[in-house]
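Record type: ASSEMBLY
Status: queued
Input:
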Amino acid sequence: MIAEHLPALQVVIPLLAAPVCVLLRRPGPAWALATAASWAAFGVAVLLLIAVLEQGVLSYHLGGWEPPWGIEYRVDLANAFVLLIVAAISAVVLPFARRSVAAEIPEEKAYLFYSMYLLCLTGLLGIAATVSSLSSYVLISLGKDRRALTAAFQYLIMGTIGATFYLLGIGLLYAMTGTLNMADLAQRLPAVSDTRTVHAAFAFLVIGIGVKAAVFPLHLWLPNAYCYAPSVVTAFLAATATKVSIYVVLRIVFTIFGPAYSFEVIEADLVMIPLALAAMLLASTTAIFQNNVKRLLAYSSVAQIGYMVLGISLGSVTGVTAGIVHLFNHAMIKGGLFLALGCVFVTLGSVQLRDMAGLGRRMPWTMAAFVIGGLSLIGVPATTGFISKWVLVQATLERGQWFFAVLILASSLLALVYVWRVVEAAYFRPAPEGAAEVSEAPLAMLIPTWLLILANVYFGVDTSLTLGVARRGAETLLGGAA
Amino acid sequence: MIEPGLYNYWIVVILMMAGFFIVMSHGNLVKKIVGLNIFQTSVFILYISFGKVSDATAPILDEAYTEYSNPLPHVLILTAIVVGVATSALGLALIVRIREAYGTVEEDEIIAQDPDS
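Status: finished
Output:
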């Protein structure tokens, strides 16, 4: 009985917990409730994935209305996997949040923070873009630095433009087909696909969601937003928000329009591949010159999104597998790295490179976590980053594009340089004169950090879950139209 | 009845470009929000206008009428308007906070105060 309603429960649990958090008013209980809700959502996500692996696609009709009139939640492997990523990251980040939020957000506002956080989680789990984006603007603006406000405002402007473009694209499709249901759209589109309206709709949809996904060159909001947001928010959003948007890109390109249309008629890959390559190289190069480590990682995120877009726009099963697997792996890499930085921020009060000098001896566990995460980011064997890049290189070679493979490797070298800058500062430079005595971060923060970092190593060795699910997900996405 | 042609789409295009231009060209944050609203409104008009059926009435069940406008785009836009209001409110709230922190709502003056960002 309850199992039938899993897809709805996934969204309803955090949604209901959010207003209760506001009623609780005290940070402690609000945090406990948020954590419980988030863990419950994680449990539901695991059950959903198992159910989908066993039974195939689940279809849930909200309120019992049959599609196409009612709203249908379709859960297949690809989105069950994304749900699992989001819920898992949230379940790990929240235990970390308690200390981090106490250090960065005024106590009287903490309960509102948790409430917003849950709403953001709801939006990401339910793929309700407006809920998650509005709450993420608020979350970012809660950063201590006043620049967090301007960053949030910039994000709000760009996010709204993106969302409006997206709405416009949907509107044009609706005008041509008379339906909003993805499966129906895919069926009816071929009949009208040669019209200029549908071409324009494709452009509006991809660009609109590209803003949210921070696809180069639409990433301008991202570095500031990640840089000045509270540590918890950065870790959560970096690991999940852009991933959900990338997932929506997958849906648009493969499920609604179908790969044949996207890549052969519109030839979207002619635009997307160069942009992905540019993101990998330019954003990585920019990252090298950053002195704020959070901003450095933010630019690196833009580069990593380039990898995903490259994988998707190759349009082959291996390519899409690489894209999906990197969704998962990058969520763990960046989640772990930003949590490690959160530990640094709580104890040190800064994430500037010069302040982190000599930190390796004073915070050995935190910095060790950072190093392992960094290795994974570069793509050293036996870490998840290696797996993603391996599959991606395979996909490019399959297409006979060895030149792309070379560029992927070049971008990894750039990653090596920027990770090395942090390592060098932390381990090979003496602590600055008169530096504050800091000791290791509290255990409640270290454990979540290490959980994600160890997950990096684990999924770098045992890839049956990630690669297996990603490949099957890619096959369903591509199989829909082939 | 006069053939309406495509003039509704022209209005949408003009409004959209005007709003987009305001967002990009103005340094005043409040004006940016105004531009954003115009930009969003253009899409609302697009949806509403193609839900309208010539010579049909509002979609209320009644035996006297058989042709109705399509209510679905209208409902969608009702939601979108609510989201738009929430976005504007949030944007304006952020502007108030920015003004408290910087003492100005002009983008160039704000950037000048944070030289290293």
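Annotation: Residues 13 and 89 of chain B are 25 Å apart (CA to CA).
Annotation: The helical segments of chain B are 7-25, 29-51, 71-102, 107-113.
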